Amino acid sequence: MAKYEEIAEDIRNGILSGKYSPKAQLPLEKEMCEHYGVSRITIKKAVDELVMQGLVIKRRGSGTFVKALDDDDVQELSMAKQFEGFSEAYKDKKVHSEIVNFEVIHPTEEIATKLKITCDDFVYYVVRTRYADNVPYVIEYIYMPIGLIPGIKNDVLLNSVYSHIENELKLKIKSAHRIIRAMLPNELEQKWLEIKSDFPILEVEQVGFLDNGQPFEYSKAHHRSDKIEFRTVSIK
User: Fold this and answer.
1) Does 32 share its domain with 138?
2) Which domain holds residue 10?
3) Across the 236 residues of the chain, what is the mean pLDDT of every consecutive 10-residue run?
4) Residue-wise over 25-49: b if at least 16 C-beta within 10 A, else e?
5) pLDDT for 145-159, tens place per residue?
6) What is the pTM (predicted TM-score) of this model?
7) How far is CA 10 from the centre of its chain?
């Protein structure tokens, strides 16, 4: 995780915890430079990140102020920060998984770069379908480095991998970088998601990070478009 992202996350935590109240002014740029020991460019990038997240507003000549979010907005942002997995997100439904493929492989150069490992290292490669109330919602393609996330077995994959990471391995999941795009399903996805070839799906490409900045997961989740929605907060 880049330094400006760490700073943005720290300020974000302060906003969500109430340290910075709605409409309150954030410390001046100079003060934040001294507090975090970084340049003005780094602080500017951190604040711009918070602006894009809809948490703060820049006012020319006045400073940066916390946006007045209502309770639902704060809940949405807080939940996103906690990096919920499928099991937690649909805990009001009966959740189960089916393993399509599970093997140990060497990563490609692209995947190794995203996970900050080498092509000689080993990763789990998992393909699984997630169900809620016996309806297929998403098929996941997951890569995780074995050296960082040991102990992944069938019983873990049939339940919650994130729960295994946090409760069994005592690692803290911190954040994720995501790209979302629309696409059409391939034959495998048509079968497992029980959809037709012209049924649109949403791909969420993701790199997940632990609290020490280490990537622990690279994945692509292909969601049925009728079973998923993404919410954001936008400001002018």
Assistant:
1) no
2) 3-76
3) 88 85 90 94 92 83 79 44 66 91 97 95 97 95 97 92 93 86 96 97 92 90 89 52
4) ebeeeeebbeebebeeebbebbbeb
5) 999 999 999 999 998
6) 0.68
7) 17
- Tell which of 13, 43, 76 closes a domain: 76
3-state secondary structure of 171: coil
Total count of domains within the chain: 2
Claim to verify: residue 103 and residue 126 sit in the same structural domain: yes
Give pairs for 66-74: CB < 8 Å, separation 24+. Answer: 66/15, 66/20, 66/21, 66/22, 66/23, 66/24, 66/25, 66/26, 67/22, 67/233, 67/235, 68/22, 68/23, 69/22, 69/233, 73/233, 74/16
The DSSP code sequence of 13-79 is HHHHHTSS-TTPBPPPHHHHHHHHT--HHHHHHHHHHHHHTTSEEEETTTEEEE----HHHHHHHHH
Structural domain includes residue 152: yes
Q: Where a domain ends, among 55, 76, 97? A: 76
**C-alpha 101, offset from chain centre:** 23
| 3 state DSSP class of 10 | helix
Residue 210 within any structural domain of the chain: yes
Name the 3-class secondary structure at 139: strand
CA 43 to chain centre: 23
Reported as a single tens digit per residue, the pLDDT across 66-99 is: 987 554 444 444 434 445 678 777 888 899 999 9
* CATH number for the domain harbouring residue 153: 3.40.1410.10
**Single-letter code of the amino acid located at 200:** P
The rounded distance, in Å, linking the Cα atoms of 182 and 180 is 7
